């Protein structure tokens, strides 16, 4: 099982590396989105209040990760999917996609963080906590979005469906992540955030476990 | 007649809920005053909704295990009924909020969460309608229904309790038991829960039978040739 997953993750990375335009496209998406918000709120360094900084950051990460993950099942054409269907177990496929997309989302959010810090200033006081939260948030985002992109890929009108199906489901994760990141920005005592981190981890676990159980049924159809 | 006892019970209990709910004496608490009567409608409808959503999830699981369309019919019709109750519940809740908290929408976490929960289930309907093949519709609908429910539970029951909310039982506010559920309220509250749930079952049941008839007619038309 684990060997299978590792092979599949390697396959995802190779594929991504071969078509660099998709990866570069999504990275550019993050940078442009940050720039658009920067110009439209008309903020200068340190001019923007901390809750707004936090909210803008997470909204941008949300939209970029929806775009990044949406392609995970559409990118490869039907014939190749049939081939995977024959050689790999559905559990291995969903787990490998979730892990790969977590990495992708994490890279996106780190890039977003760097660009945000350069352009809008960096108010974060507790860096390790903020990064840890990014990691957890990326895992949750990717578990939820990977499953939803699997569902949306079965239906036509993909982009709209992807958004309306995933936004309500992702909100619990998003809200928890925003709260923890607010605590990390304010540099609050870590004990306050630990509880919330555990809750976030629990929600991630629920979403991940449901995706793991349900995906075989989706894959079969 | 024997098979219909629960419908009679539903009518009796609904009549009781409306009459007793509007006429019986209620405790007068500051701010709440007479608006406490909304408890019999708003809260009980949400209870009914949750019960029907659970039924829908159970039947979605059954469908995925067996692949029989009749289970899927139950799941979609119970979800439909639950959505109707959810909308009614949120509207009655908004009315109640106007008179106690001062605004129709006061950004209360539970209020927001329930609106998001409804969005989830509207998305479920759109997803189903965007698929054409009947088996694919059933399968993917069932998968999303279970997936959405697993996100709905933390959204409604866990997250609001972690923050300050105006609803009872959240953010240090006392729950029902501690504060306003005195025995007079209980006397109407529990029958009302049963009444709304039965009404929901009845609605779902009617639509379910219509759906089965439709399918039978279709099969007949197809088999004629």
UniProtKB/TrEMBL annotation, chain A:
UniProt membrane topology term: Multi-pass membrane protein
InterPro entries in alphabetical order: Cyt_c_biogenesis_CcmB (IPR003544)
Transmembrane annotation, as ranges: 21-41, 53-70, 106-124, 131-153, 159-178, 198-219
Localization per record: Membrane
Keyword terms, alphabetized: Cytochrome c-type biogenesis, Membrane, Transmembrane, Transmembrane helix, Transport
Main location: membrane
Pfam families associated with the record: CcmB (PF03379)
Family named by the database record: Belongs to the CcmB/CycW/HelB family.
Protein name: Heme exporter protein CcmB
Lineage: Bacteria, Pseudomonadati, Bacteroidota, Cytophagia, Cytophagales
Automatic annotation (TrEMBL), chain B:
Transmembrane regions: 39-61, 82-101, 113-131, 143-162, 188-206
Annotated protein name in UniProt: Cytochrome c biogenesis protein CcsA
Keywords: Cytochrome c-type biogenesis, Membrane, Transmembrane, Transmembrane helix
Recorded topology in the membrane: Multi-pass membrane protein
Main location: membrane
Pfam families: Cytochrom_C_asm
InterPro entries: Cyt_c_assembly (IPR002541), Cyt_c_biogenesis_CcsA/CcmC (IPR045062)
Organism of origin: Echinicola arenosa
Residues covered by the Cytochrome c assembly protein domain: 11-159
Subcellular location: Membrane
């Amino acid at each position: 099982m684990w060997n299978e997953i590792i092979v599949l993750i390697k396959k995802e990375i190779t594929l991504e590396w071969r078509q660099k335009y998709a990866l570069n496209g999504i990275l550019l998406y993050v940078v442009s989105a940050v720039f658009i918000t920067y110009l439209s709120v008309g903020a200068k360094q340190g001019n923007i209040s901390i809750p707004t900084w936090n909210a803008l950051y997470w909204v941008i990460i949300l939209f970029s990760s929806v775009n990044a993950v949406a392609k995970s099942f559409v990118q490869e054409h039907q014939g190749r999917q049939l081939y995977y269907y024959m050689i790999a177990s559905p559990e291995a496929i969903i787990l490998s996609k979730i892990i790969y997309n977590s990495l992708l989302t994490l890279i996106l959010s780190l890039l977003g963080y760097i660009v945000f810090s350069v352009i809008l200033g960096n108010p974060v006081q507790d860096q390790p906590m903020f990064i840890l939260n990014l990691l957890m948030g990326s895992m949750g985002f990717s578990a939820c979005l990977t499953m939803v992109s699997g569902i949306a890929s079965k239906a036509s009108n993909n982009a709209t469906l992807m958004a309306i199906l995933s936004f309500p489901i992702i909100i619990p994760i998003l809200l928890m992540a925003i709260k923890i990141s607010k605590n990390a920005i304010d540099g609050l005592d870590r004990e306050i955030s630990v509880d919330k981190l555990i809750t976030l981890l629990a929600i991630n676990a629920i979403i991940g476990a449901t995706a793991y159980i349900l995906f075989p049924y989706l894959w079969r159809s | 007649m024997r098979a219909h006892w629960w419908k009679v019970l539903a009518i009796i209990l609904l009549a009781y809920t409306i009459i007793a709910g509007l006429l019986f004496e209620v405790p007068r608490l500051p701010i709440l005053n007479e608006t406490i009567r909304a408890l019999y409608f708003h809260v009980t409808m949400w209870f009914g909704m949750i019960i029907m959503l659970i039924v829908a999830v159970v039947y979605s699981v059954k469908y995925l295990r067996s692949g029989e369309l009749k289970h899927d019919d139950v799941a979609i019709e119970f979800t439909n009924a639950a959505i109707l109750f959810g909308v009614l519940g949120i509207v009655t809740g908004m009315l109640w909020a106007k008179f106690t908290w001062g605004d129709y929408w006061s950004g209360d976490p539970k209020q927001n969460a329930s609106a998001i929960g409804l969005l989830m289930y509207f998305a479920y309907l759109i997803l189903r309608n965007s698929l054409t093949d009947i088996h694919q519709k059933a399968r993917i609908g069932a998968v999303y229904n279970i997936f959405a429910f697993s996100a709905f539970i933390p959204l409604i029951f866990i997250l609001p309790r972690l923050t300050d909310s105006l609803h009872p039982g959240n953010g240090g506010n006392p729950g029902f038991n501690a504060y306003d559920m005195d025995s007079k309220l209980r006397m109407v509250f529990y029958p009302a829960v049963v009444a709304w749930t039965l009404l929901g079952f009845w609605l779902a049941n009617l639509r379910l039978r219509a759906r089965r008839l439709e399918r039978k007619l279709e099969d007949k038309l197809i088999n004629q040739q």
